[in-house]
Amino acid sequence: MTARFEAQRAALADVVAIPVTPFAEDGGVDQDTHRALLRRLLDGGVRIVTPNGNTGEFYALTPQERQLVTELTVDEVGERAAILVGIGHDVPTAVQSALHARELGAHMVMVHQPVHPYVSQDGWVDYHRAIAEAVPDLGVVPYIRNAQLLGARLAELADDCPNVIGVKYAVPDAARFAAFARDAGLERFVWVAGLAEPYAPSYFSAGATGFTSGLVNVAPSVSLNMIEALRSGDYPGAMKVWEQIRRFEELRAANGSANNVTIVKEALASLGLCRREVRPPSRPLPEGERAEVAAIAAGWSV
Prior knowledge:
This protein has helices at residues 6-12, 31-43, 63-77, 91-104, 121-134, 151-160, 174-184, 200-205, 220-231, 235-257, 260-270, 290-299, and strands at 15-17, 48-49, 82-87, 108-111, 139-144, 166-169, 190-193, 210-213. With 302 residues, the chain is of the alpha/beta class. The protein has an eight-stranded parallel β-sheet. Helix 4 (91-104) packs parallel to helix 5 (121-134), helix 9 crosses helix 10 (235-257) and helix 10 (235-257) packs across helix 11.
């Protein structure tokens, strides 16, 4: 750990908002709505955002659109929040995206899990090392969804690249997370529960200090209430929030998370904040299923 990354480490220990990417009627990125949604997050108390995350439909955006989303976010957010830019795909593309983020003044990059059917542990380290070494002045946060990865390999990566400062851990197994974090170095990294509010209480009990959120797009106060409870050790209070959001998150997780982004955009559409359209392989919610999502969103203090 180096002193120059202290601000980035502190920023990660929070609700890490993953903004949606709103689409206009012509199918392109709706820039004005995107800015409005970012302002709503900031006004709601959010202090770190991840443009080009999965809730932002990272894999459905073109390279030019990913650059545009980064540019819009940096310009709109300014100094009001930390910016953790999602990057990924092949190494040259990921490096180019990281360099672009650095040029714009972003603070950190989150490296999406390698999209490849054959990922060796040595290759995982090589992939992230190549990216981290290209931007040694940026904080780097691997996004881990691979249950086979060993914590010792993350420690090896950080030995070579001290700018690897945090981890978005998204394996749905709290016991595995607890072991992984301790094998890698519990105090060495900032641990972000990458499966959002449903897993945050159990992951916080094992050492996480931040969690990602797509729900925060809809109701910033709900997500912030949960992290305040967790920070204070009020697990009964955190579980009251958990109960409040349970059905919404169950809808997102159903059928292998088929409607993960769809439900968030549907809730925003019900509030008149953006269009409900998502891109394939996601699909808008059928009309007959929209009322339940609207009722949930209307019941929150937004």
